[in-house]
Predict the 3D structure of the following.
Amino acid sequence: MPAIKSLDDLKRIRAEALEKRKVKSASGNVQVTVAMGACGLAAGARETMKAILGQIEAENLNGISVSQTGCIGLCEHEPIVQVTVGEAVKVIYGKVTPEVARRIMDEHIRAGKVLQDYVLPI
């Protein structure tokens, strides 16, 4: 985070933070979070993240926010991907390989169909 040296810097950073919050809370917006803790990385989360970002770029998809988080305590299910579409209940997927990640992008995010075989019962 850049140093805040003036009131203008603080106002600019505040405006950016409010804009990010508005985008995340917008109806219809899609949020994808990939667990990238040590266990996730060891299980292939980096490749899963690359597959998600690659599909977004290749298909020029808009309205999708992708982020990463640390370990969420479900190591045996890594790589883990959480998907929230608008105001819908979040869905947490386990054992998400790059191929499954591409299916999530196509079937869940674009077509609205949850991939039940990979949903974690949480």
Q: What stands out?
A: Residues 13 and 19 are 10 Å apart (CA to CA). The helical segments are 7-25, 38-43, 45-58, 98-110. The chain is about 45% helix and 15% strand. The chain has a mean pLDDT of 89.
